[in-house]
Amino acid sequence: MLNLVLFGPPGAGKGTQSENLIKKYQLIHVSTGDIFRAHVSNETELGLMVSKLMAEGELVPDAITISMLEEEVDKNPDAKGFVFDGFPRTVPQARELDLFLERKGSKVDGVIALDVDQTELTKRIAERHKTSGRPDDDAHKLQKRISEYFEKTIHVLPYYEEQGKLTKVNGMNPIETVYTDLCAVIDSF
Ligand code: ADP
């Protein structure tokens, strides 16, 4: 199994790069944001529970997120591996992911953090907001997402760094360059 965590702030390009990577390495893309959004649009019980938090740019509680993630992974018992996009976003999520994969005799093979500066992130999301229809892409909500990132999510980096699993890739480069850089890192796992 090849399990990759793609890490980075909102607008860093995780979704775009995940789509390319899963084709090349035949992995399953697990984007917790996409899964939550599907629940919201299908008005499932979970969707109704999380829609307000998401629209405000706040994180969904760990217990809900972790059980949803595990369910999603378990739907794919024959997978060659996974690209986790938007997960883990807190240290407890990172710990649970390690335990969960360990129970399956597997592990996180590597974590790649896409580095993009704040000015560029704000610009990209303002552009995306024109077509995304995502309430949380609104400028005010985006500030909340960025502050959630710097308060809670950033601490996931030292967690993986201590395990020697973290590599940073410059996410300011053109999409193709970032993709090439990501592949070089993955090929070195
Ligand atoms: P972004 O484009 O900002 O990276 P996502 O599409 O990954 O955002 O996630 C959108 C929203 O979904 C988050 O702001 C949060 O409310 C919720 N969410 C997604 N993943 C998680 C997670 N791992 N833990 C808690 N909440 C999450």
Average of pLDDT: 96
CATH second-level architecture: 3-Layer(aba) Sandwich
Main beta sheet, described? 5 strands, parallel
In CATH, the topology is named Rossmann fold
What small-molecule ligands were found? adenosine-5'-diphosphate
Count of distinct strands: 5
Q: What best-fitting shape do the alpha-carbon axes yield?
A: globular
List the total number of helices. Answer: 9
Helix and strand succession? EHEHHHEHEHHHEH
Give the strand line-up of the largest sheet: 2-3-1-4-5
CATH class: Alpha Beta
The chain-level structural class is: alpha/beta
Distance separating the two termini: 12 Å
Bin the helical content: 55-70%
Calculate Rg over CA atoms.
16 Å
- Total tally of structural domains: 1
CATH homologous superfamily assignment: P-loop containing nucleotide triphosphate hydrolases
Strand content: 5-15%
Detail the poorly predicted runs: none
Structural account:
There is one protein chain. The protein is an alpha/beta fold and 189 residues long. Helix content is 57%, strand content 14%. α1 (14-25) packs across α9 (175-187). The longest helix has 15 residues, at 118-132. The chain starts with a strand and ends with a helix. The model has no long low-confidence stretch (mean pLDDT 96). It binds adenosine-5'-diphosphate. Residues 10, 32-33, 36, 53-54, 57-60, 65, 86-87, 89, 93, 136, 145 line the site of adenosine-5'-diphosphate.
